[in-house]
Amino acid sequence: MDDYAAERERMVAQQLQTRAIKDPRVLDAMREVPRHLFVPEGQCDAAYGDHALPIGHGQTISQPYMVGLMCQELRPESDESVLEVGAGSGYQAAVLSRLACEVTTIERIPALAEFARRNLARAGCDNVRVIAGDGTLGWPEGAPYDGIIVAAAAPDLAEPLVEQLAEGGRLVVPVGQRGVQDLMVAEKVRGRLAVRKVCQCVFVPLIGEHGWENGG
C-alpha cells in the first residue's frame, strides 16, 4: 500500500458513498487509482480533497465526486470501448481504464496531453491512448464507442460525438452556459438519443469546432 491509500479510502467513504455513488466497480476503481500522481508537483497533499484542483493552462482536475458520478452514469463494462473528451491530467481516463477494455482520451492542449501520458504511464494504465487534438471532433478511427464522456462544458451535444456513439451507447456531458451547466446522459436507442438530466454542475468550457470558441 502506498502512503496515500488511507486518503483514497477516506475519499471514497466520505465523498462518494455518502453522495449516492454506489456502483462497486466505480468505488473500487477510485480506491485503486493514485490520484496524487495526476496533480502538479507540490499539490499531492491536496489531491484527495473534496474539490477540483488547477493543473495549469486554465484547466482543472475534477472534484472526485464528479469523476465518480460521471463514471457511474456512463456504466462502462469491462469489454467496452470508451472515449473521453478533455484528458486534462489523465485522472478520469485512469479511473475509466479500470472499468472499460480500452480508453481513448483527447486533449486539445499538447502540453497537457503529454502530462497525461506521463501520469498514466506512472500509474500503469496501459489500455489508454492519449490523442492531442480537438475533442469536439471525437476520434473516428476508434469509433463506434460504447461510452463517451466529456469533461468540459459544451453548448450542445456535439454531432461528431453523437455519430461516433454505438447503438446502446451512453454519452455523459455537461451542457449549458459557461457559468453553470446540466450534467446530461444521452443513450442511443434505435439511432435516436434518449436524454435525461442528472444534476447541475460547473466545468471549464469545451473549446473546439463543435464547442465554444476561445474567448467567445
Q: Overview of this structure, please?
A:
With 216 residues, the chain is an alpha/beta fold. The protein has one domain: Vaccinia Virus protein VP39 (Rossmann fold), CATH 3.40.50. Helix content is 26%, strand content 28%. The chain has helices at residues 5-16, 24-32, 64-74, 91-97, 110-122, 159-163; strands at 53-56, 59-61, 81-85, 102-107, 128-132, 145-150, 165-176, 181-189, 192-201. The strands form two sheets. Strands 5-4-3-6-7-8-9 form a seven-stranded mixed sheet. The protein has a two-stranded antiparallel ribbon with strand order 1-2. The longest helix is centred in the middle third of the chain and has 13 residues, at 110-122. The protein starts with a helix and ends in a 15-residue tail after the last strand. The mean pLDDT is 95.
Strand residue percentage: 25-35%
Instruction: Give the number of helices.
Output: 6
Report Rg: 16 Å
Low-confidence stretches: none
Number of domains: 1
Tell me, what's the shape? globular
Largest sheet: 7 strands, mixed
The proportion of residues forming helix, as a percent range, comes to 25-40%
Order of SSEs, N→C? HHEEHEHEHEEHEEE
CATH superfamily: Vaccinia Virus protein VP39
CATH class: Alpha Beta
Report the mean per-residue pLDDT as an integer: 95
Name given to the CATH architecture: 3-Layer(aba) Sandwich
State the CATH topology: Rossmann fold
Structural class, from secondary structure content? alpha/beta
Report the span from N to C terminus: 46 Å
Strand order of the largest sheet: 5-4-3-6-7-8-9
Give the beta-strand count.
Answer: 9
